[in-house]
Structure formats: structure tokens, C-alpha cells
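INTERNAL AUDIT FORM
Audit reference: QA-55
Scope: verify that the stored structure record matches its stored sequence.
Auditor: D.O.
Record contents follow.
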Amino acid sequence: MKFKVFCELEYQVRMPTTFIFNIQVARTPNQTILEESLILDPHFQLEEFTSHNTSSRFLRLQVNDNVTFKINYNAVVDLQYKIVDEQQHKDAVPVVKLDADVIPYLFPSRYCQSDKLQKFAFKEFGHIENMYSKVLAINEWIYNNVEYIMGSTNASTSSIDTITERAGVCRDFAHLGIALCRALSIPARYFTGYAYKLNPPDFHACFEAYIGGDWIFFDPTKLVPINGLVKIANGRDAADAAVASIFGSTFCNIMNVGCESLDPKFKAYKYDKKKQKGLSYQ
């Protein structure tokens, strides 16, 4: 499947500021970048680097003047995914056999305080033996019990806040899903990307759980087709995968984001808890 993704960001800089952007599509075995362009107006020197333990591609930019600038990113991506049968992923990989690069996704993190949710997680989901079904039940619980309300949370909102207030946005839904999985010793990680037909258009956050040797995708908001996402980054939580980290004083004037299918035969793959097969974006 081919997708065209783009974003346009405009910032008004008020004092010397360092930006670290994470807006480029990740290069993965299942995600091939066919075309890509990045335009900065006015021009500043950009430094690109990749996280040592992920496929995240960062852009570092230093702006010392009081100026308004735009950054535009466009890409055409060929995306492949694997459909996962829950019966083939009924067992979790024991912690003793997990690969070293998976281990960090078991631990509590800044926004995912899994150690504080263990009692709740075991009470609600501990009785479910099939690991895929267990994470799917977590996904369904969040969808049914947490209200999606735009603007209801902020950058400091954590999974504890979300389960208490029972409201949030995609970022908060993802953090809660991650925390509940980790509370049950299931590795889980944050997923941010471009989303097909997300309304209103924006970057989208979901999560992946490590089951039976695969990273399997889940979206408790159910706002977009699960086969309509182009990955930007993974992380322990949003702190690792923010699309823009800003060190200084600035104001965002414009944020336009989009994801379009270039495949005329594209068929949106929606959730159906009775028939749903999982997806892996590895």
C-alpha cells in the first residue's frame, strides 16, 4: 500500500531556541520511503540523527534570532504489514527469554506508571489466558471507559490521570494501554505516526504490545483504520517520540498534517472485536 504523508509547521521564535523534530517517516523492514522532501523557510542548518536503539529519525535545529519559520515535510511510503491470528499469538514470551531490546518496554516510565496499576490490571484482565485476547480486552476497556475529549489534557497528563479522570486524547489512550500491558508483564511501546482520514487531521498516537515474538498494533481510540498508519517513531512513551521538543521560547502558528492513500483499491481495516485479526507493523 502506498501513502502520501505531509506536515507543515510554522513557529514564531522569541528567543534563542533549540528544536528537535521527529516528523520524518521511520525506515523499517515493512516501510519503504519512495520519495521524501524537507523544506525549511528561511533556511537554517539542520542536523539529522537516529536514536541508537530505535528507527526514529530526529532533526536538530538551532534558531538564535527572533524570526518566524516554516518546516515542510513530504513523503511517499510503501507500507506492508502482517495480519496476525490471535491463536498463533496466545502465549507471551517469558521475561527470561525476551531479547535485550524488548526489556526496556516492561518497565514503568514517565507517563506510564505500570507499577501503580498492577492491582487494577490483574483484577480486570488477569483471568484472560490468551495473550492477544488479553491486550485486546485492554484496548476495548479503554475505548468503552475513557471518553475522547479534545483539549481535555496537557503535556503532563499520565496514565494515572487518565484512568482517574476517564477522559483524554490519543496520547493518553496510548499511555494507559501501555501501562496496563506492562502491569501484566507484557512489553508495550508508544507508536506515533501519520493517520489516514483522521478527523481533525493531526499526528496520531497508539501502542504496540509484544506478543508471541511480534510487535502487534492496537489503537484504543478506534478513530482511524488500523491499516492506515505510517510510522514515525516508537518509544517508551511520548517523551521518547514527541514530534517536536522545544528548548526555548516559541509559539506554534500553524500545524497542518495529512495522510492520503495512493492505492485506488485500498480497503480500510476497522476493528471488530469478534472477528478482528491483529496487525504487525514490524
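Auditor finding: record pair retrieved intact. DSSP finds four helices and 16 strands in the chain.
Action required: none
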